[in-house]
């Protein structure tokens, strides 16, 4: 009677197992060698679309400098970026202002009819002839313009570095830099003929599994 009862329970479990298997359309086994088999009813993995994480970081920094660093959670870099931006902006404005002053002074010095060679730099050039003053002011004008142009160039370079840094940092975040990735050079003994040993060095590389 008991044997018949256990057979009935076993048959019921087997039938239930087939029903569940058919409903889920997958094979489930237990044990150390368990395997999950994908069937037609299982949803296929959706293909990721859009920008990757480094691409997003670069795009954010391109839209607003420092935003990519915030996206990478490197908040301490944002003040540095804006300190550089403020410094470069100040030098651009300062050199451009000097360029305009010196250019106007040269114009005034060359227009001897309507201006009488009087400009804001006249007190400093009182001992200069008009030709010497024009020459000196022209050099100062050209130097201010050159420094302004260099400051603008440095601003573009800083902007590009801001974007590149966000991209590279986001890309390197995916690399494993844990202690399991090590390379060690250690002294050791190398066996030679007749059970003799010779000092040597061993190179050990540990890779994370």
Series of H and E elements: HHHHHEE
- With strands numbered from the N-terminus, the spatial order across the biggest sheet is 1-2
The chain-level structural class is mainly alpha
**Can you tell me the overall shape?**
elongated
Low-confidence stretches: 2-6, 8-28, 40-48
Number of DSSP E strands: 2
Distance between the termini: 54 Å
Question: Tally the helices: what do you get?
Answer: 5
Gyration radius, rounded = 38 Å
- Average pLDDT, rounded to a whole number, is 75
The amount of beta strand, in percent, is: 5-15%
Give the fraction of residues assigned to helices: 55-70%
How many strands, which pairing sense, and closed or not: the largest β-sheet?
2 strands, antiparallel
Describe the structure.
By secondary structure, this protein is mainly α. The chain has a domain at 53-172. The protein is built from 5 helices and 2 strands. The chain has a two-stranded antiparallel ribbon. A hairpin with a 5-residue loop joins β1 (182-191) and β2 (197-206). α2 (53-63) packs antiparallel against α5 and α4 (77-110) packs antiparallel against α5 (130-172). The two termini are 54 Å apart.
């Amino acid at each position: 009677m008991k044997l018949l009862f256990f057979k009935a329970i076993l048959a019921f479990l087997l039938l239930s197992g087939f029903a569940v298997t058919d409903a889920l359309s997958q094979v489930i086994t237990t044990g150390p060698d368990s395997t999950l088999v994908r069937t037609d009813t299982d949803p296929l993995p959706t293909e990721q679309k859009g920008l990757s994480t480094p691409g997003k970081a670069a795009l954010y920094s391109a839209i607003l400098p420092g935003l990519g660093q915030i996206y990478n959670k490197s908040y301490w870099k944002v003040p540095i970026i804006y300190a550089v931006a403020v410094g470069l902006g100040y030098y651009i404005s300062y050199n451009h202002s000097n360029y305009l002053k010196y250019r106007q002074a040269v114009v005034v010095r060359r227009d001897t009819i309507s201006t009488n060679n009087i400009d804001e730099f006249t007190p400093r050039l009182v001992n200069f002839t008009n030709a010497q003053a024009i020459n000196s002011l022209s050099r100062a004008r050209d130097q201010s313009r050159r420094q302004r142009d260099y400051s603008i160039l440095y601003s573009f370079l800083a902007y590009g570095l801001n974007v590149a840094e966000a991209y590279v940092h986001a890309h390197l975040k995916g690399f494993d830099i844990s202690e399991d990735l090590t390379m060690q050079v250690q002294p050791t003994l190398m066996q030679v003929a007749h059970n003799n040993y010779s000092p040597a060095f061993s190179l050990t590389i540990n890779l994370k599994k």
